[in-house]
Specification:
single chain, about 300 residues, mainly alpha, three-stranded mixed sheet, three-stranded parallel sheet, 11 helices
Amino acid sequence: RSAPREAGPNVWLQSSRGSLLHTVALTTVALCAAKAGRQVGQSRRPKVQRLSIKGEAPSSGLAAPAYPGMEDPEKLMKFARDLCDFYRSSSQARLPLGDTERLLEDAVRLFSQEATLVDIEVPTGDHVNVVGDVHGQLFDFLSIFEANGWPSEENRFLFNGDFVDRGSYSVEIMLILLAFKLALPKHFFLSRGNHEEETMNHNYGFTGEVLAKYDVELKIFVAFQRVFMCLPLAHVVNHDVFVTHGGLPRISKNLSLDTIAAVDRIKVSTDDPRQPRQPQEEDIIYNDLMWSDPFEGDGLRVSQRGGRHPQ
């Protein structure tokens, strides 16, 4: 490796083509969301209660904890733990709209200042818990903390992507993860998976879940997408262990940690999929870090699952 990497510039999420919403026409979002929302409503109508535009949370066993902002880590840690209990108390528990917006905005600010490849330092004798796909399974997710303890400066966690889709509680899991990240920015880590992506969300349930729980509030769905675009793509533990959701990129010439670190993940994320172009090396690295799969045998072969920039 060469000189230590620095986090990229604090890029607010605007590309040369405009805001996030340029990636999908509003009519497309509305049609996909309506279809997904109907599916959610049909399967979970007794469990899902919409949040009004005024941000009034439906009744549950506990009062919703108030988001305290980023200034006090101790208050943030209490908020994250209380959020776990709040969501456990009732399937109708909803964090009010205003608190949800502020939490997502603060997460974007934090992640936009992190590197694409994040170094994790674990002192001798300490540890880091590495967790794979949780896919919206709230109670399985909470059992991880029950078994391994709450996140802390001594009890580090790295959640390695695919937080959302498939399960019914992706919103709740994402907000809990972001709360812990804001409370412990140097000891709690999130890596982007292939399901932290807009098209996958339309197809596998997260879009419909967000719009069902937040009364077709597109701004909440868009805010989640902003968070996803800023998530790091890989981590290295103690300059020794490489962790990513997918696998090593297919680039064989001059591939290094610095090559991966140089990927402008926000720029690649905001490229317009409606304007196809020949994939560049940066696109391929971005794609493979989230999508590539191991298989029995040597060499490379085309994945049957596809990806954002297939070759």
